[in-house]
């Protein structure tokens, strides 16, 4: 059972990590976990609906300061801030899932084909992707969002518009990474060996190249997820987001609270902003730690437990420990003598 | 003034890895006297490199060292225990008291600085030199390591030197501060055998002229016999035997040393074997249609824009008959691998004619060639990279059976895979392992199993043993000969090592700069070489016997003088 858990991607890395790297990873995982749970349990956690303006026939009132009925106050539009922040997590998840799913399939397939066959197709695709890079991603997302939704913004339309506009920005990233890996792996001996055996291009591509090229995908996935949230918030902030009656969206709320900030109403801007910062921080921490842990040269390790020198010095053995020689002190297991603090101290 | 430059006492080094602690060096005690060459030999993983790197304090952060390494200064005035030094003190010791020569000269030099600058950098780290002084010293040292025209070469960049010259520059960098000790980690492994002989000469001169002691780390017993005064044999982190070179080679004591020496291939071993095979052949064998026939074979790689194409193979004629092993020998860049790849259809033929199993390779279409592929097996040089790391060994060996529709899935092919694994002396349970869970030799045997899965009539082996340790190499070569007897395939055996080719080949072809310079049986080519290049190649090959090697060295010097 332990073996099985150890093989799961994130848990495996969590086991490997030590010190600061483990701290970063755990922090990231906790924040991301809270984010996911919030999104999942939004209907239970949120006191009101995201588009709810009144309870029991009584309106909430606009810009109410935090109170027992509204722990985080209400917005200028008269919505409950806490409920909007909690429901916003759900919208963010929707957008991340749709955006990443769309871009991962298209990007990986294009990258694989482009890198494997090379030639003219490869050149054209690379140039197109470079051209997309040259646009500011938010501008591109705005253009896409106008093209796709044309100003209409119910939940599905709004989420799809945001997701597809983010997808256009992300495809080149997946394309680039997979293409670079494919070009590298194409020259590996095991690919040549498959070719010598007479394997077809499709077989070589999918059986031998693809599976070896996808190692870095979880890393880009986490980094892109945080970028997707930022882009979504940016779109919402600029007024290309989702209507408040369709779904809660942090960027939209921030936009509406612009004028509040100058008049001393802090709660409408603070909490959606904080939500964005925390979620992006959490996912980025997970991504960066996974990135560091995947590279043996960047990965920190526990100091060797069998530190014969230390043992020989601190243990009193009749006849002198040194004659026993390093590693030759059978009965003196260093683990038994040094607690966890002892090992940390050596590190 | 003390007599030893470095003395290692009871050194133990442990590495923290993902799989727990690994002890690399376990209670090693060694010492090196002034002006002495100590060779540390052993197979990969024996801890020889770790021991040597400890002398420079070059261990990675994950390593814990225990014991003592006392390093004396050049004038013998003092000594320091490297293990207890902090980083600043270590920097002072490196370069001044001990310097290092690395395995791969092309990566040890920084490509964006001139060699003069890189030599001066070492000087500046250990004292104040004006630009002019540093340059003068750099020119002086380049001249002394045998770089022609050092005054202008000092401003050259590394890529303007050949591999052997680069290694000379690396040695110059090590010598410039006149350290008492040089640690040379496989200094000739990346070099061709003729260049190797020159670098070994230079290292010998370091000892004789500069009075520098050398710790030589190598797996090549010939190099040891050529250069070493004393030899320490390491096995599993321990020194199993230590003796002066002549005693060790003539009268090895330890069981492991004896096995190691016995595994080293000698030129001339294969002659008897090849002769007996030739006798056993049918009379009309020579008239049969050859499996591979090359006539005026010409292969060139397109040059970059505005540059002429690079000619890798230039007008080569050769043939391989059914059931015959042709050994193809040459140095790096001689085009031997290109020929192998062309026969397997991995490289396009640009001129002449190459017929493989009756199929013309010039202008061939992959579609037409595909059925022929089941008749060709290919064994790659590096067993570590020739297996898809995500598939089990059984899956990898089953690949050819699935591709050519002899089996529908890996599970379906398992019975045949088990037979194949047994044929290459691997337990069938190894089929469920992943490639990284096998040792280099086991992987190369699995590679043979994969190549033989379809019972090919032609096998191409591209340096199949050059990535293996010498004792493992011996077993793989033995297995290769056995399988060849059993399956009766024709083979092209590509190697840079004359002794290895001699062991397995019926005929030997020598390539030099894309041209075939000599071809014949082992007895003809190795016994009485006609072409001057073959003669030089043969004379440069160090033999694992210090006395014989000393004679050969003189013979080589005469040969060079005659050029």
From TrEMBL, chain A:
InterPro entries: BP-dependent_transpt_permease, MetI-like, MetI-like_sf. Residues 89-287 form the ABC transmembrane type-1 domain. It is found in: Cell membrane. The keyword Phosphoprotein does not apply. Keywords: Cell membrane, Membrane, Transmembrane, Transmembrane helix, Transport. Pfam families: BPD_transp_1 (PF00528). The keyword Cell membrane applies. It comes from Microterricola pindariensis. It is a multi-pass membrane protein. The lineage of its organism: Bacteria, Bacillati, Actinomycetota, Actinomycetes, Micrococcales. This is Peptide ABC transporter permease. Belongs to the binding-protein-dependent transport system permease family.
TrEMBL record, chain B:
It is a peripheral membrane protein. Keywords: ATP-binding, Cell membrane, Membrane, Nucleotide-binding, Transport. GO terms for molecular function: ATP binding. Residues 6-261, 292-538 form the ABC transporter domain. It is found in: Cell membrane. Belongs to the ABC transporter superfamily. This is Glutathione ABC transporter ATP-binding protein.
């Amino acid at each position: 059972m332990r073996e099985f858990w150890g093989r799961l991607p994130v848990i495996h890395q969590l086991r490997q990590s030590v010190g600061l790297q483990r701290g970063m990873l755990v922090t990231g995982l906790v924040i991301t976990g809270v984010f996911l749970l919030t999104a999942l349990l939004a209907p239970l956690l949120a006191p009101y609906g995201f588009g709810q303006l009144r309870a029991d026939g009584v309106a909430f009132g606009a810009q109410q300061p935090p109170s027992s009925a509204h722990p985080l106050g209400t917005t200028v539009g008269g919505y409950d801030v806490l409920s909007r922040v909690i429901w916003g997590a759900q919208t963010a998840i929707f957008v991340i899932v749709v955006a990443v799913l769309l871009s991962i399939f298209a990007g990986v397939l294009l990258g694989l084909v482009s890198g494997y066959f090379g030639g003219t197709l490869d050149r054209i695709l690379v140039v197109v992707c470079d051209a997309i890079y040259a646009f500011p991603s938010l501008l591109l997302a705005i253009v896409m969002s106008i093209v796709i939704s044309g100003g209409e913004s119910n939940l599905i339309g709004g989420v799809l518009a945001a997701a597809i506009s983010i997808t256009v920005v992300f495809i080149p990233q997946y394309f680039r990474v997979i293409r670079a890996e494919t070009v590298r792996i194409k020259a590996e001996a095991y690919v040549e060996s498959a070719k010598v055996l007479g394997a077809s291009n499709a077989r070589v591509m999918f059986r031998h190249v693809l599976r070896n090229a996808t190692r870095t995908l979880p890393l880009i996935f986490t980094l892109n997820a945080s970028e997707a949230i930022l882009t979504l918030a940016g779109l919402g902030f600029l007024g290309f987001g989702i209507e408040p009656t369709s779904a809660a969206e942090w960027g939209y709320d921030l936009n509406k609270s612009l004028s509040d900030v100058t008049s001393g109403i802090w709660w409408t801007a603070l909490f959606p902003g904080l939500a964005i910062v925390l979620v992006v921080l959490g996912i980025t921490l997970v991504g960066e730690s996974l990135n560091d842990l995947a590279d043996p040269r960047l990965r920190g390790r526990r100091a060797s437990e069998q530190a014969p020198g230390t043992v020989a010095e601190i243990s009193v053995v009749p006849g002198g420990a040194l004659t026993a020689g390093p590693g030759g002190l059978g009965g003196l297991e260093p683990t038994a003598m040094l607690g966890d603090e002892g090992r940390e101290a050596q590190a | 003034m003390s007599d030893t430059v470095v003395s290692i006492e009871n050194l133990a080094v442990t590495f923290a890895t993902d799989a727990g602690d690994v002890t690399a060096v376990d209670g090693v005690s060694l010492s090196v006297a002034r002006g002495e060459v100590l060779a540390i030999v052993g197979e990969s993983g024996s801890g020889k490199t770790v021991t040597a790197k400890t002398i420079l304090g070059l261990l990675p952060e994950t390593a814990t060292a225990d014991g003592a390494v006392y390093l004396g200064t050049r004038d013998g005035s003092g000594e320091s225990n490297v293990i207890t030094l902090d980083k600043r003190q270590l920097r002072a010791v490196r370069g001044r008291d001990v310097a290092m020569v690395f395995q791969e000269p092309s990566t040890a030099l920084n490509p964006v600085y001139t060699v003069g600058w890189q030599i001066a950098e070492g000087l500046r780290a250990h004292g104040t030199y004006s630009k002019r002084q540093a340059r003068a010293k750099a020119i002086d040292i380049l001249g002394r390591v045998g770089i022609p025209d050092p005054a202008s070469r000092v401003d050259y960049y590394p890529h303007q030197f050949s591999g052997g010259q680069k290694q000379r520059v690396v040695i110059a960098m090590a010598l410039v501060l006149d350290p008492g000790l040089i640690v040379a980690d496989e200094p000739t492994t990346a070099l061709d055998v003729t260049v190797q002989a020159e670098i070994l000469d230079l290292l010998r001169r370091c000892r004789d002229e500069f009075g520098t002691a050398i710790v030589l780390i190598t797996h090549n017993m010939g190099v040891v016999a050529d250069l070493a005064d004393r030899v320490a044999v390491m096995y599993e982190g321990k020194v199993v035997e230590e003796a002066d070179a002549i005693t060790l080679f003539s009268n090895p004591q330890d069981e492991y040393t004896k096995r190691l020496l016995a595994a080293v291939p000698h030129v001339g071993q294969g002659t008897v074997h090849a002769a007996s095979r030739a006798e056993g052949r049918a009379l009309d064998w020579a008239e049969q249609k050859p499996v591979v026939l090359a006539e005026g074979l010409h292969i060139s790689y397109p040059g970059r824009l505005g540059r002429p194409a690079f000619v890798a193979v230039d007008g080569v004629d050769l043939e391989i008959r059914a059931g015959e092993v042709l050994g193809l020998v040459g140095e790096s860049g001689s085009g031997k691998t290109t020929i192998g790849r062309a026969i397997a259809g991995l490289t396009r033929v640009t001129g002449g004619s190459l017929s493989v199993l009756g199929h013309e390779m010039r202008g061939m279409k992959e579609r037409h060639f595909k059925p022929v592929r089941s008749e060709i097996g290919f064994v790659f040089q590096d067993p570590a990279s020739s297996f898809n790391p995500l598939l089990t060994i059984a899956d990898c060996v089953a690949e050819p059976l699935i591709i050519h529709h002899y089996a529908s899935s890996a599970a379906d092919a398992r019975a045949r895979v088990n037979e194949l694994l047994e044929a290459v002396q691997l337990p069938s349970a190894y089929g469920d392992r992943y490639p990284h869970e096998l040792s280099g030799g086991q992987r190369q045997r699995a590679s043979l199993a994969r190549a033989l899965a379809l019972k090919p009539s032609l096998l191409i082996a591209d340096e199949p043993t050059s990535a293996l340790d010498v004792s493992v190499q011996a077993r793989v070569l033995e297995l290769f000969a056995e399988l060849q007897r059993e399956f009766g395939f024709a083979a092209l055996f590509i190697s840079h090592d004359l002794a290895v080719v001699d062991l397995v080949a019926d005929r030997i072809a020598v390539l030099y700069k894309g041209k075939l310079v000599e071809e014949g049986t082992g007895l003809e080519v190795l016994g009485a070489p006609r072409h001057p290049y073959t003669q030089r190649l043969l004379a440069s090959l160090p033999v694992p016997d210090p006395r014989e090697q000393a004679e050969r060295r003189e013979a080589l010097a005469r040969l060079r003088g005659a050029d």
